[in-house]
Amino acid sequence: MISLKDIAFKYRSEEAYALDHISISFNAGEWTSIIGHNGSGKSTLVKIIMGIIEDYEGEIYVGNELLTEKNKQRLRRKFAIVFQNPDNQFVGATVEDDVAFGLENLGLEREEMIARTEHALGLVNMLEFRSHEPHRLSGGQKQRVAIAGALALQPEVLILDEATSMLDPAGRNEVLSILWNLHEQLDTTILYITHDLTEIDHSDKVIVMNDGSIVGEGTVEEIYRDKEMLARSSLKVPYTVEISNALLDGSFVTHDELVVRLL
Ligand SMILES: Nc1ncnc2c1ncn2[C@@H]1O[C@H](COP(=O)(O)OP(=O)(O)OP(=O)(O)O)[C@@H](O)[C@H]1O
Ligand SMILES: [Mg+2]
């Protein structure tokens, strides 16, 4: 779906690369998690994909098309993003206005805008809050509205940059379970950026970043098994994975499976 070839970027010429010539692909329909500690380059990568940073080295392919000056607007319409801070992403006075507002540049008929807004709010279980003021919602509800705003654009790739990191545990679980359901129902390609390894269990693929480079790539199990690489990247294996390793002769289980096995 998206392939990055030899992407490099520095914020200032005298500094080290924030992204140091990285190549990766994100497959259509898959949930890819990108993990890495603070400053490892995750958001820089997202900014390059979204066109917020334009003076990068290297090539981006969307499908089989090389992204160029000419086609970038059309190709980037396939992507939608949800950011970290639930309070910085609202412009509308009500939840439904806010979701509809994002559609205004698309030149849709009014009926189509209403239909898409309702459908997207339904997907994140927020339809009953349609006439509420966004700033009065809980953090988790705000992020669900932000996800609805992104889904209303009918993207092929949904990108979430630390979208749960400012939420309390309840809000985080709320948002994660909605995303897992969406991924199963809609086949949307998901690019999930986090520094919290307890959130990656449902990923098809995990990419580990450290100091602007990719230092690991594999299934959740493969990533958890490579403890040295995780330690070098200042990432910690979740407690539940440590427990399952100790209790189950080192055989790997996800968090959900561990709960079932221990019952
Ligand atoms: N606007 C900026 N100007 C200068 N340097 C920046 C800027 N944004 C990020 N950097 C630097 O680029 C590197 C990568 O930062 P980036 O924000 O991509 O990391 P990240 O993995 O998203 O971190 P976090 O987990 O804190 O969100 C860091 O060294 C950071 O200090
Ligand atoms: Mg970041």
From TrEMBL:
<comment type="similarity">
    <text>Belongs to the ABC transporter superfamily.</text>
</comment>
<feature type="domain" description="ABC transporter">
    <location>
        <begin position="2"/>
        <end position="236"/>
    </location>
</feature>
<dbReference type="GO" id="GO:0042626">
    <property type="term" value="F:ATPase-coupled transmembrane transporter activity"/>
</dbReference>
<keyword id="KW-1003">Cell membrane</keyword>
<dbReference type="InterPro" id="IPR030947">
    <property type="entry name" value="EcfA_1"/>
</dbReference>
<dbReference type="GO" id="GO:0015087">
    <property type="term" value="F:cobalt ion transmembrane transporter activity"/>
</dbReference>
<dbReference type="InterPro" id="IPR003593">
    <property type="entry name" value="AAA+_ATPase"/>
</dbReference>
<dbReference type="GO" id="GO:0016887">
    <property type="term" value="F:ATP hydrolysis activity"/>
</dbReference>
<dbReference type="InterPro" id="IPR017871">
    <property type="entry name" value="ABC_transporter-like_CS"/>
</dbReference>
<dbReference type="GO" id="GO:0005524">
    <property type="term" value="F:ATP binding"/>
</dbReference>
<keyword id="KW-0472">Membrane</keyword>
<keyword id="KW-1278">Translocase</keyword>
<dbReference type="InterPro" id="IPR050095">
    <property type="entry name" value="ECF_ABC_transporter_ATP-bd"/>
</dbReference>
<dbReference type="InterPro" id="IPR027417">
    <property type="entry name" value="P-loop_NTPase"/>
</dbReference>
<dbReference type="InterPro" id="IPR015856">
    <property type="entry name" value="ABC_transpr_CbiO/EcfA_su"/>
</dbReference>
<keyword id="KW-0067">ATP-binding</keyword>
<keyword id="KW-0813">Transport</keyword>
<dbReference type="GO" id="GO:0043190">
    <property type="term" value="C:ATP-binding cassette (ABC) transporter complex"/>
</dbReference>
<protein>
    <submittedName>
        <fullName>Energy-coupling factor transport system ATP-binding protein</fullName>
    </submittedName>
</protein>
<dbReference type="InterPro" id="IPR003439">
    <property type="entry name" value="ABC_transporter-like_ATP-bd"/>
</dbReference>
<dbReference type="Pfam" id="PF00005">
    <property type="entry name" value="ABC_tran"/>
</dbReference>
<keyword id="KW-0547">Nucleotide-binding</keyword>
